Structures are given as structure tokens and as C-alpha cells.
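ok here's the first one, seq then C-alpha cells
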Amino acid sequence: MLKAENVTKTYNAGKKLALSDFSIDVPKGSIYGLLGPNGAGKTTFIRIINQITQADSGKIFINGENLNPEHIRQIGYMPEERGLYKNMSVGDQILYFGELKGMSKSDALAQAKYWFEQLQIDQWWKKKLSELSKGMAQKIQFVVTVLHRPKLLILDEPFSGFDPVNANLIKDQILKLKNEGTTIILSTHRMESVEEMCDYVALIDNAKKVLDGKVFDVREKFKKNIFGITLAEIDDEKFSLFRNEFGITDFRTENQLVTFDLKNDRNQNILLNELMKIGKIRSFDEKIPSMNEVFINAVDKS
């Protein structure tokens, strides 16, 4: 759906590098996580896609076509800094932004009705934005963003300001849009949302891409061969020898079960055979790092 090739952007007459030779490929119908520390270059890239600013060099393609003004109507963008009119009624804003995206009034009304029902906000049509809480205003911003049914949806911190119930409601709507074929770029610092929702990720740090790929593959790349093991009915003497061999100093005993972590580079089948000589294996799980751990490790190494 979206492909970026060697995109570079500088500010202040070339003194400030915002993006350096940045390339990604966002598959159709996927949720693609765009990650990075504050100031890494994520917002610059999003602004280039939305043609708010231009790259110094490199190319961006939408559906195989060079990025051009006609693509604006195919894109929905929900910025982290929201952009609604505080003293304008919710209904008037919905229709106004729908018209800006090329919708007829009747189409905008029909889509507004659908989204107001989905987000349980039917009673807000005549309210001014200034009368709504931050979370309520967030819902209106979301409706404005998706009203024209964009093919490419860009969400920058979409859960900011939401309580857990409404965050989950918005998450469900995002996943529903994905299932209907919308391609979504999700920029967030909530790594749990990345694990739950994203198919692919790219991590930017200091204007450069540090890593990208499928979420599971990225997490696999950072694993450290650590296993969580729980044994029952252990042979104390054999377990003592095993602990000494592997240098296990931290283990937990509860309800006659012994649980410990083990860093091991041996063949897993050999290890399992050794464990079976010590006791009955209740669990044996390889510990795959969370996206939060991947984020921290990748940024530290970059």
C-alpha cells in the first residue's frame, strides 16, 4: 500500500537531520507500527506522507503510484496534537471535514450516523467541542479521521486521553477497519498495543531505521535463549548438581513445584532429557522478549 525508498529530510538549511535514507514497505490490509523515541523522525515521515512537508530526496509510492495530491483523499490522519475547532458544534465539524475530503453532505451524514452508533456518542451532535472531555473529543477526532473511509489510515498515539474501556473500544474499531481492508500505520509508545495489534513494525532512532519486519520475527531476533522451567517431584540431589552445572542461583519453590529461568545454548531436546531425570516437567517455555524490551535494547545499541 505504501512504499518509501531512501527518504531523507533535513531542517535548518541542512543542519538538522530528521530522516536519513529511510525505507519501509507497508503491505495492504496490515497494521504497521512506526516506533521510535521522541524526536526520532516518526512525525517527519508522517508529515511527508500527508504532503504537509516534502522530502529532500527519496521516493514514496501509494499503491504503486508516486505520491501526489490526489492521494490526500485516500489518507486519513489523526495527529497526536488534535486539530478540531473548540467553539464549533460536533455535527458541523463532522460535515465540514467530510466535505474537505470530497464527501457529499448525505454521504458524510450517513457515515457520521454509523460512527456515532459504533462509538456510542449519538447525543453529542449539537455539543460544542469545548463542552466535551478530552476523551470525548478524542472520539470526535477519530470519527473525523475515518469518516471518508480512507484506504490508508495513519494514527499518531490514538489511545492518548482514553480510559481503558474507551481505549479498548477504539482498538476494536481499528481492528475492524483492518479486517475490512484498511491499511493502518500506528505510531505509539504503548508497546503492549504494538504486540496486540501490529503485524509489522519499523523502529526509527536518530533519523535512521534501526530495524523492521514482522512483529514476531523482530521479537525472535532479540531472544537470548532463556527458558522458564517448572518441575515437580524433583530429586534434590540431581537438582543440586544441575544447579551447579548451569549456575542457577535464583529459583522459587511453591506447592512442591520448583520454578527457575535458565539461559541455555544447548539443543533443547538434550536439555529436556536432562530435566526429566531431575523431576516431572510441568512447563518449559522459551522467553521471547516483549516489544518494550526490544525497543529499549534496539535504541541502546543504535
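and now the second one, same deal
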Amino acid sequence: MTRLISAKTMLRGAALAAAFGATLTSATAQDITLRGASMFDENHAFTKTMERFAELVNEKYDGDVKFDLRLNGELGVEADYVTFLQQGVAIDYTIMAPSNMATFAPSIPLMDMPFLFRDKAHWEAVLSSDVLKPLEKELLDKADIMVIGYTGGGVRNILSNHPIHNLDELTGFKMRVMGAPIQAQIFSALTAAPSAIAYNEVYNAIQTGVISGFENEAASIQNLKFYEVAPFLSLTRHAITVRPIVMSGKTFRTLPEALQTAVLAAGKEAGAFGRELESREDGEKLQQMVDAKQLTVLEFEDRDKLLEMVIPVQDDYAKSLGATELLAAIRGM
């Protein structure tokens, strides 16, 4: 696999598409290159999972496929990736948060809804099943983006520039959330003051006092050194991440049938690989930051109360999406 890394300024839109070429146009092309993107470096679980995906495709496909994986946000942020995948330009596959796809598929953030999973066993059961198929269909129909696997496994907590131990201290907390409305609705119900801010602006926003913190998992906190501006981590454990491995439908349809089969099988296996990897590394990375005295970890005293407070918001959100039965199915697993 080829991995190309550049330190140049991020390119956008048509200029980026021109620089890296249009999506494959011939299903019989002899020289097939699939282009991937990661916001992170070679040590991040997303990158390792995409590398494993490439290895699996080449193991399963009796043909020549090259992989051009761009790292460190060279091709932009996840919001850019969604547009590129939907248009079929610049990149062919990536891993991203469901909330970033809400513009095209409003129901997709349901899989990323805070407090959706009871525990790791429940999370694994859902991602190993077909229960999320209705959301996958919506994403494909409305955005022409295919889910080919599920990774994730990071436990998300609140990171702040001052200690937060309980609901009283959470009240009015100015925090960044992802762009999907359900994220803001959940944390508003918990009496915080959420706002959607671009991910690449979070560090400066905390540093300048625009917000006092945000929510994330250990790998991203460590990778981007968010502990420098927000050294307190409150164990709300409000989410176990679901990160779809996605491919542009426009790209997928240009591939030979045998390669399509290999891609789907590789995506599923890479997802299982990534879930185990990220779950394991999540705890390790959190402990590393604690041991290095970069983070102070705080138990959240009212976590059971949080679980009760969000149920009406979750129910209303699912109803608005016509996904009441889907939410019930997830809860019932």
C-alpha cells in the first residue's frame, strides 16, 4: 500500500479534485487506485484500520489495487470528506463520525446518539448485527455513500478546563458538540450549554475562552494534545463511538464485480479489527495521559441521573426520524 503524506496547506473543492484526479471511470481499468483520507497520523486507530482494510482487499481480490492514503488532515476535515464522497471526487473511502453525515442523511446520527449503548457488550452486539441497515439505506439513497463496516470503540467523556464532578457543576458548561442536532439536544437536557464548533477550531476555542471544553475519546485527546488546554476529564461515559467505514457509491459502482465483493468483505473484517484495536487502545491511552500527569480523571457523581434525563430526548428524536422501532430494537438487544 502506498501512503502519501504532505505538509502543504489543505486543498479544497475543485482544486483538490483536479490535483488528485477524478473517481474511477472504467470498471475494467487495469490500474485501480483507491484514495483514502485520515485526519490523524499513522499511529491512530482509524489509520491502522484503513491500512488493514487495504491489506484485506488485496488478500481477497485477485487483481492489482493500489491504495493512496493521505494522513494528518491533508485533505481537510470530516465535513469535507462527506462532500467529496457524495460528489465522487478526491477520496474514495474513509472513517468518520456519523454526525458529520447528518446534512445528507438526517437519521444517520442516531447511531452516534449519546447514551445509546448500555455497555461494551451491547455496543458490540449492535454493530455485529444488521439492526442498523435502515440507517445505511438512508445514507446510500440520500448521499450515495455506502457503509462497508463499523469501527469505533472509544469511550467518550467530557474534557474541560476546570473540574466537573456532578450535575450542578455541569450546569451552564460551555462545550463543543458535533454538528448533528441530537448532540446539542442531549447536552442541553443535561443543563450544559452546547454549541457546534468545527473540530479543527476546538483547541483555540478553549484557549481563548469561547468554550470551556468538549467531549471526546482518549485517542483524539492524546493525538491532538487537547489536555494542554483542558486537563480535566469527567467520566460521564456518555458514548461508545460508532465510526462507519464508508465508500463513495460512485466509486463502488465503477469497480469490477469481484473487487466489489472483496471490498464488502474487507470492510466488515476491518471493522471488527478496528473495534478491538480502538477499544483496547482507548483504555491504554487514557492511562498514559494520567501517568504523564497530563490529565486529571474525575468520577461523575450523578451518572445514573444522566441516563434517566436523556430518555425523553432520545425518544422524541427517534420519533421525529420515524425511527421509534429502530431505537426500540437497539435497546432490546
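notes on #2: The chain has one domain: 2-331. Residues 1-29 have pLDDT under 50 and may be disordered.
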